[in-house]
Fold this sequence. Notes:
The protein is α+β, with helices and mostly antiparallel strands. α1 packs parallel to α2 and α2 crosses α3. It has 2 domains: 2-167, Ribosomal Protein S5, domain 2; 170-308, GHMP kinase, C-terminal domain (Alpha-Beta Plaits, 2-Layer Sandwich), CATH 3.30.70. The relative contact order is 0.17. Strands 1, 2, 3, 4, 5, 6 and 7 form a 7-stranded mixed β-sheet that branches. It has a 4-stranded antiparallel β-sheet with strand order 9-10-8-11. Helix content is 41%, strand content 24%. The protein contains 9 helices and 11 strands. Residues 12, 16-17, 19-20, 101, 144-145, 147-148, 188, 192, 272-273 line the site of (R)-mevalonate (MEV).
Amino acid sequence: MNAFASAPGKIILFGEHAVVYGRPALAVPVTQVHVNVEVLDSPRAGIFIHAPGIDLHAELNTLPADHPIASVILKVIQRFDISPLPNLEINISSTIPVASGLGSGAAVSVALIRSLSSFLLHPISDDEVNTLTYEIEKLHHGTPSGIDNTVITYNKPVYFIKGQPVEMFKVGKPFTIVIGDTGISALTKESVNDVRRLWLKDTARFESLFDEIAQVALIARRSIESGKPELLGKLMDHNHSLLQELTVSSPELDQLVIVAREAGALGAKLSGGGRGGNMIALVEQAKAESVASALISAGAQHTIITEVQ
Ligand code: MEV
């Protein structure tokens, strides 16, 4: 007996950081990268986890209970009230770079929860997958808004407001995004904490920056739904400058953003927690390859071309 599940990566198009403070944000899945999880019966006693990408080969009980992968498995076992524990081999592989703003942590949780639920014959709804994944995100990421687990669970473009029912948005006309990875790993938790410190010191200014980001996200949603994605370029540029004011950009991100614009992108911004990780650029489809190679020449570690539809 075996079971399998896969989960995509994600990018935030508009509204990162402000979303932690109740403002709306837009995120879409990135299916070019994914986490795969396979669960198999094991001839040996125990639950063995193999994640060669992070050099992890261990039995569940030898890991601390708050280990990112162990905590998901323990939560599922508790949720389904499984006893005695089955003997399992769990194989995890991922093409989503870690700590890069593409949602690798949430994708591991979603794929693990779904594969275990299927192996253990305990069906689980999308809403429950989302709730469990959010609980795991809270264990490891401080004060996440919940946008990563939501877009990855439902695998659809989402218009997200913290604490409100999940809302999808329609894409009136497909558009192309080039994702460029600075190759610098940056923990979202840290940039979120830094923004919180600054917000506490200068609440009025940060609240008004968040309001401005919310306006950008609202206009962006309307542009996407009404089939005018070309309008997103200027909005991305504006969102990037607001993120710079929040102090979450970095010289490398700024450089890739400038290079993308010079290579013909309609607009560009950092995406996710910032300080490193990925940036995104809106491009006409015909220019995608040349913008991607300009990013590589400027030091991007890799690029992904993705169609939002
Ligand atoms: C991370 O993908 C996006 C942030 O807004 C954090 C969050 O929403 O939890 C930076």
